[in-house]
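Table 4 source record.
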Amino acid sequence: MEESDLAYFLHFAFQNLGLEPGVLMGLRTRNEKIPDGERAFMLASIRKALLEADTPVKVRNFGKQKG
């Protein structure tokens, strides 16, 4: 996945907030089918997160809480 400001923003929003890129950009609603290009971006985003051993912000912060 090439790095650009938009790609990074969409990757961050998808990984940390669970917002699908097309929905975030206003191109479709959650009820519509995910286009192939958007699906490819989402899969690349997941792969990038796994290869970088990254975890969403919420999960990282949750692990640091002391009970």
